[in-house]
Amino acid sequence: MRSVELWKLVEQRTVSGSDTTAIDERIWSQFGEQWTIMFTDLAGFSRQVAKFGIIHFLQVIFEQKRLLLPLVEQHDGTLVKVEADSLLIGFENTALAVRCAVAMQHACRSFNTGRDPEEQLVLCVGLGHGRVLKIGDEDVFGHEVNLASKLGEDAAKPTEILATAACRAAAGDVAGVVWEEIQADFAGGQVCWRAAY
Fold first, then answer.
1. Chain center to CA of 162
2. Stretch 165-185: mean pLDDT, rounded?
3. Which residues, other chains included, contact 105 with Cβ-Cβ below 8 Å and sequence gap of 6+?
4. Which residues, at least 6 apart from 81, have a Cβ–Cβ distance to it below 8 Å?
5. Within 10 Å of residue 182's Cβ, how many Cβ atoms?
6. Mean pLDDT of all residues belonging to the chain
7. Which DSSP state fits 153?
8. Is the dihedral angle over the CA atoms 37, 42, 47, 52 positive or is it negative?
9. I need a surface site. Which of 97, 133, 143, 194 has the fewest CB within 10 A?
C-alpha cells in the first residue's frame, strides 16, 4: 500500500538530526500531484439522523451514492472516500470538476421533486485546486483539500457550489457557469467564488 511508504518517510522525519528538507522532497516527488478536489456535504443531514434514525441515514447514503457516483465517473473523477454523508472526490481536470458539481446539483434537484423534505438530497459542494499528496486512490492531503472541505461542509449553503480562488483560476470559463466573488467565513476570511448555474 502506498500509505505504508508515505508513513515510513514521515517516520524518518522524526529521527533526531534527519534531513527533513530532503525527506520532504522525496515525499513530494513520490506522492505530489496537481488535483482539483471536491468535497460534498448533505444539508441538514445530522438533524435528519437524530430525528429519523440510523436506517434512514443508511438509505440516504445509499441513494446519494447511487445518484451521484455515476456522474463522478462520467466526469473522470475519482472517489477517494466517503465519510458519513460527505464525498471526497479528485479530478485531474478542473473544468470537468465544475461541470460535475453542476450536474450533481441538477440531479439532486430532479431527485427531490415530489419527495418529502426528509427524503431529499440537498447538496453543498466545495472545490479546491492545487498540489496535494495523493496516496493511491486511498487519500489526499493538502491545503486545498482542507479548504474544499471547509467550503463544502461549513461555508456552502444548500445547493451552493463554492470554489477557492485557485480552483476558480484553474477552471477558467465553464459553459453555463457564472462566477461571483464572495467573502467566505473560513480560513481567515479568504476570498472564494460561488458558481451560479
1. 10
2. 93
3. 123, 125, 159, 161, 197
4. 87, 88, 138, 139
5. 12
6. 92
7. I
8. negative
9. 143
